[in-house]
Amino acid sequence: MSFRFRALALGMALSLVAWGCTQAETPASTAVAEAPSVHPESGLPIVPLTINSGGKAIPFRVEYTTTPEAEMKGLMFRTELGPNEGMIFPNKIMNPGAPPAPRSFYMKNTLIPLDLIFIAPDSTIESIAANAEPYSLESIRSQGPVIAVLEIAGGRAAELGLEPGDKVAWSEPSR
Description:
The protein is an alpha+beta fold. The protein has helices spanning 3-33, 68-73, 91-94, 156-160, and strands at 46-53, 56-64, 85-90, 104-105, 114-119, 125-132, 140-141, 148-153, 167-170.
């Protein structure tokens, strides 16, 4: 085998190895960068939300209600909700331009217990209604005016040590 042929064969082999590595790396990096931005069941946008509690930043990925219909349905009929998943209900969806106001929710057709976290105008937790009872028609109310309500899996707020005064921040869905 001539030197030239060996050099060409080696060059081609290295090119194929480099191409294979690039191909193997691409799907993994793409998967992380392109995590689903729409929930497969609700079709709602998923946005990052962070609660700062006790010096820790606790990340969530939450569905963002975009219409009054989506807000009215909420998490009804769901059979599961991951530990760092939830749904955010900004006031501006139901009442665009309205000032912060008291909010109330009920658990009709909701199959799993939920923690309802009411978010005050300063973006802190105003109050928490823990382990709301599935199927209940009882009204669950904020203690004062709020700008949004966050629903997470029942008991999760206590597990994380969340309490009134903790800071909540979330992103708007990209258009």
